Amino acid sequence: MAPSPREAVGQRFDPALMQHARERTWAVLRGIRERMRPGISEDEAKLEAARVCRELGIERLWHPVLIRIGANTTRTYRQRSDPRVRLGENDSYFIDLGLVFDGHEGDAGDTFVVGHAPERQACADAARTLFGEVAEAWRTRGLGGQSLYAFAGERAEAMGWRFNHAIKGHRVSDYPHSVHKGGDLGDLEATPSSGLWILEIQIAHPTEPFGAFHEDLLTGAPAHMATR
């Protein structure tokens, strides 16, 4: 059976290099986390991220580095941050990276807490847990993209969090995936293949101005989550 046009890849595509790009992207994310400190702004954090990217030898970005702090963690990728926000003593932030290594795209995102902020920690933990549940439903039940996001919304509500339905995941491949026009995972009726799709999860507190984000590559093995 011919592969779906939505899962097309280039001639140089290599699943092993996709995994390598995934692992290296998570390494960069952890390096950026080590440089986050109370008082830092998002623009200052992006400068630190650029330094980490240079030190760890990325080939290029395939999407701009996104770092959201505090109340900005409820905003989507396309929404602009409030530039006045700085990381508080008891606060949270998330990092979203799209990096290219050896011509293949990595995409990773995770949420972290500084100081003592139990509700924010619970939100960050919930985003990781929800990601794991949705990824496991894909592995064990073969759910299609639309069904995966319907399941994610139901589980988020049951867990007591607001689910951001505007975040729907997307394709990755050898760079650039955009030439294949794979579209959003949340619009895919079929079961997504392993190693080609990014599952994105964004949730928020039902009443307070903070949220959490987690994303990773859907693969046959359990998700490679960043160390807290």
UniProtKB/TrEMBL annotation:
Domain Peptidase M24: 17-181
Gene3D superfamilies named among the record's database cross-references: Creatinase/methionine aminopeptidase superfamily (3.90.230.10)
Cross-referenced SUPFAM superfamilies: Creatinase/aminopeptidase
Top-level division of the source organism's lineage: Bacteria
Pfam families: Peptidase_M24
InterPro entries: Creatinase/aminopeptidase-like, Pept_M24
Protein name listed in UniProt: M24 family metallopeptidase
